[in-house]
Amino acid sequence: MVEQIVKKVKGFGLDLEEMVKAGLHFGHRKSKLHPKMKPYIFGIRKTVHIIDLEETAKKLAEALEFIQNILKEKKTILFVGTKIQHQGLIKELAEKYNFPYVSERWLGGSLTNFDIMRKRVAYFQELRDKVNSEEFAKYGKKEQSMLKRELRNLTTKFAGVEFLEKLPDALFIFDVRKDNLALREAKRMGVPVVAVVDTNVDPSQVDWPIPASDDGAKAAEYILGKVDEAIEKVKS
Fold it and tell me: Is the pTM of this model over 0.90?
């Protein structure tokens, strides 16, 4: 069992020194510890919990393998990351592979009222076609301005999920506290979740938890970089 874990970790090129440099080990203050995160804690430094990076490497390897298996089966992963330091990275990764994503605000009912969400997407597409048509010049300036403003708003909300025709087969969430509604909807609809879990969250809510900092930009770059590499291996 141990040999299999080591082989899997090495197979994804996971290096503890690189993780330290990226700050994956920095948790929150000990007063914020969620009891179920105790198995992933290495110790305390200046009142801050330090995450056991050996556990991180093991869990990250398991999550990456799950992501690869999902893609090998031609299934869909929806990437979610609305915290400021994650938005650009999530969007860049998803757009690279034409995956659906949410990088602004998770809209309530995106999964639990999926049919309604798809109707809103259809309206967004119709409005975009209207604004880009020759007929749009026939509208008055005030109405043009209103429609363009509405289109910008809908683009922010729905551009990332425009081509999500059915419920996703899995979610990747970078911060389950920030995007807890996405997590709750996924659990309600039976959609498995891969997520980064910091020391202040309950890892048992997540099917494939990755114990690591969910705050630092470097930590996000490292984890999403490994996700990118894992996807590339499947796509190539």
Answer: yes
